[in-house]
Amino acid sequence: MKNEHRAMTECAAEAARIARGVTPGQLAGPTPCGEWDVRALVNHWVLYTAHGLEHRALRTPLPDELTARDFTADADWAERYAAQLDRAVAAWADPAVWEGEVDLGGTALGAAHIASMVVKEMVVHGWDVARATGQEVRISEESAAFVLKVVEDNAELYRQYQGFADPVDLPPTAATFERALAASGRDPHWGA
């Protein structure tokens, strides 16, 4: 749990930094996520990686009000996202939260597995937002390796639900985080 929580803490801080770098004029721009513009991507990112992460820790469902909300309609959405990420990370600080299962509405998965998948979403969609807005993702090699493992362990499941495209070929010298992106079907060299 300590390594996972450390990765969660680092990746949440990086997601908050990226969010603060998004300008209102960029919200209508394209993203590596096909049909989603930056606004749609940010709303998905905020909902699941901040609110969803906390609700998973608390074992409570996401309120309908949140699933229909345009978080970017608030001028201070990035600061609100950062504060919500802090609450979510704090909710996972209790070692007991990592035990047992989380009910996802008919399907239950191990809490540690859910947490790792949300951290992966935080970073991979963080990269999507960063690339779409002229930023870069800066995470440690340890966190990059964590994300790569989560991507590789869950790639086929994500592909079944069209969450990942086919893997992208990279040279064997590619960095760990680039390999995670490529395994998730993202081209690490994508540009708007």
Give a verbal description of the structure.
With 192 residues, the protein is mostly helical. The protein contains seven helices and two strands; from the N terminus they run H-H-H-H-E-E-H-H-H. A hairpin with a 4-residue loop joins strand 1 (101-103) and strand 2. Helix 2 runs parallel beside helix 4 (77-91) and helix 6 runs parallel beside helix 7. The longest helix has 22 residues, at 111-132. It starts with a helix and ends in a 9-residue tail after the last helix. It comes from Streptomyces mauvecolor. Pfam families: MDMPI_N. InterPro entries: CHP03086 (IPR017520), DinB/YfiT-like (IPR034660), Maleyloyr_isom (IPR017517), MDMPI_metal-binding (IPR024344). This is TIGR03086 family metal-binding protein. Residues 10-130 form the Mycothiol-dependent maleylpyruvate isomerase metal-binding domain.
Task: List SSEs in N-to-C order.
Answer: HHHHEEHHH
Average pLDDT works out at: 95
Helical proportion, percent range:
55-70%
Oligomer class: single chain
Strand content: under 5%
Radius of gyration: 16 Å
Question: How many distinct helices?
Answer: 7
How many DSSP-defined strands? 2
CA-to-CA gap between the ends? Answer: 37 Å
Which stretches are poorly predicted, pLDDT < 50 over at least 5 residues? Answer: none
Strand order of the largest sheet: 1-2
Structural class: mainly alpha
Q: Main β-sheet: number of strands, strand sense, barrel status? A: 2 strands, antiparallel
What is the overall silhouette?
globular
